[in-house]
Structure prediction request, 228 residues.
Amino acid sequence: MVSKISPTLTELVTRLREGFLAEAPEHIGEVGIRSDEQPWPQRWPRDEMELSYHFQALPLGTIVWFLFFLHPEGRVLLFDLTQDEVAEESDHECDLAHALRLGSKRYPELADFIPPRPQGGTVCASCQGTGKSTADDTWVPCQECYGQGWLKEGLADLFARTVEELRSAGDDREAIKSVAARYRAECVGILGAGNPVQSYFEFILRRASFDSSQRRQRQAIYKSIETG
Prediction:
């Protein structure tokens, strides 16, 4: 579902962004946004301040080769360092919570805006409610709950059922397709359409202990449902 960002959070992200960019050199505006006519300078790693300026978004942190940014209006940007471009842009509530958890490592006050567990929600079994992947300083937002520390009512049960049904389906393409279609319908009913629905299917495939070849096959079947 689309996130509804509060005016208070908008003000905070704007203030943090402006504070970060206050240290920008005067020539920061001389480099244009990447296009066929005006490509980025060829250098790596990418200058975080340059990207923050051009996207007018707050830098939150890096996971693997993705730089995460948050725009004051609630859009989350993932900049792919390997491709030198924005790989994903989302305003889904799960992606916003993930961004806030990641950003809280750098700006602790952002953690105050991660939604509390709703009525009927369950504590995330993977992180035990912390929203973090590990207990030490190397943590990233928990993959299962998007850093929230909890799952919406029905999600944990849906994951467990889908794991078992996919295992039972074996290599039967039609059976896999049926399980994937039911999963997608139920997950959209809980979360609304958006990136997390597909991401959770990939998470379920790993939980079911399929190897890389089996995961690719089932991901392809799932994507055929989304595009069909």
Notes: The CA atoms of residues 119 and 153 lie 8 Å apart. Strands lie at 58-63, 66-70, 76-80, 85-90, 122-123, 150-151. Helices lie at 7-21, 48-55, 93-103, 155-169, 173-191, 195-207, 212-227.
